[in-house]
Amino acid sequence: MLSNIRIVLVQTYHPGNIGASARAMKTMGLADLVLVNPRCFPDSEASRLAAGAEDVIDSARVVASLREAVSDCVQVVGASARLRSLPLPHYDEPETMARELVASAASDPVALVFGRERFGLTNDEIRCCSHQVSIPANPDYGILNLSQAVQVLAYETFKAWRQHPDSHYRPVRPAADRQPTREQLDHFHAHLSRVMQASGFLTQPHARTEAQLQALFSRAQPSRKELSLLRGLLSSLEEPREEG
Amino acid sequence: MLSNIRIVLVQTYHPGNIGASARAMKTMGLADLVLVNPRCFPDSEASRLAAGAEDVIDSARVVASLREAVSDCVQVVGASARLRSLPLPHYDEPETMARELVASAASDPVALVFGRERFGLTNDEIRCCSHQVSIPANPDYGILNLSQAVQVLAYETFKAWRQHPDSHYRPVRPAADRQPTREQLDHFHAHLSRVMQASGFLTQPHARTEAQLQALFSRAQPSRKELSLLRGLLSSLEEPREEG
């Protein structure tokens, strides 16, 4: 699925943006980069900013027109900072775009197209697209740097892929500490209660105060290890302190 | 709400990353930047990459410790590339983190903390945080550039704010073309049917074929203008063509 998703950069002016875009792609599992008439490429700035994603740079194809870049694609989404008056279906939310793009990518190549840093895409280039998407931003300052826009849309694409039932994505999680049983919690509550009374904080069992503190500890969801830690602290508080 | 959200960058090595982060912040409506012991600041690289977000750079505070940067905050989320074994509550999804951060920011300052480019945050600095968040990424290459991480988390924060009932966010939408009425659609369907029969494509009314084509046009959701366009085309197709 992700391998069917192509990133196309049209007439990029700064080679650094190509490098940073390649890095952004790779962090989000994308590897198919096509450059339409880049101003300077290959370039040391592109390689420098790719920082570990040089493989994406090295395998990038360079073509002369957007038509050539997307001819085999079944869905072509043009990323555009400004809403155009062209009647192309428009995604208000990158999240929605990403879900549909990933679904289309299950069986055929698709593309996300980014325009020039200053001028975006021409009307002719938008005609090569099936959809437009814009990234909702600050109305007073809403133009993201090109490689940042690539990062955001790649991030939403990777998220949509992770959440897709067919991706079989398994997140890397640290081993979860075991949770205590109800019985262990009951013992802890009883211990806490004894210490509160022995200290003079409660002169007699006080259901409301005890319930409130028990709820606080419950919200913290202590693991078994942490509960032991608390029990140990309570035991120390119960022991008579050394004099002098 | 957004004004209560602070971005804290700890010991940033490359001033360019500070500038790019300021730009990323501004595109997503954030303006409160605090720098803990930046290596080089102020710096021309920071201003150059801020590209229109110099106001964020100019109003950035510089402090000596993370503790100082977040002492007034009620929620402090440390962005960390690697899952740590420290038992700090951890957000798997930036989206979830952003919703809770925006909710906390309704009444008090909160902070999103980013560490050093190479080394992230120290254990002591993580102790200044109430939560951790990581950006799910390619397991083989998952470290985003610092300013890209700021962009992604700022984007999710802005999205959570837009979707929050109290933000009163109104998206900028182009004026929608008016939709046709059922009657206008009926006229169109009848016209299409006449042309299909007159052309010899259908020798008699054929409900299934007609229904299929009508459904196709419905999926396109033609505006009134577009329906007129289609009617005009159908009329031209009905006229006898000039001979010779």
Automatic annotation (TrEMBL), chains A, B:
SUPFAM superfamilies associated with the record: alpha/beta knot
E.C. number: 2.1.1.200
Domain tRNA/rRNA methyltransferase SpoU type: 5-155
Gene Ontology terms: biological process: tRNA nucleoside ribose methylation
Coiled coil regions in record: none
Pfam name, any one: SpoU_methylase
Reactions performed catalytically: uridine(32) in tRNA + S-adenosyl-L-methionine = 2'-O-methyluridine(32) in tRNA + S-adenosyl-L-homocysteine + H(+); cytidine(32) in tRNA + S-adenosyl-L-methionine = 2'-O-methylcytidine(32) in tRNA + S-adenosyl-L-homocysteine + H(+)
Primary location group: cytoplasm
Keywords: Cytoplasm, Methyltransferase, S-adenosyl-L-methionine, Transferase, tRNA processing
Record-annotated membrane-spanning stretches: none
Superkingdom as given in the UniProt entry: Bacteria
GO molecular function, one term: RNA binding
One GO location term (cellular component): cytosol
Subcellular location, record wording: Cytoplasm
Subunit structure: Homodimer.
Role, per record: Catalyzes the formation of 2'O-methylated cytidine (Cm32) or 2'O-methylated uridine (Um32) at position 32 in tRNA.
Family recorded in the similarity comment: Belongs to the class IV-like SAM-binding methyltransferase superfamily. RNA methyltransferase TrmH family.
Name of this chain's protein: tRNA (cytidine/uridine-2'-O-)-methyltransferase TrmJ
Organism of provenance: Billgrantia pellis
Gene responsible for this protein: trmJ
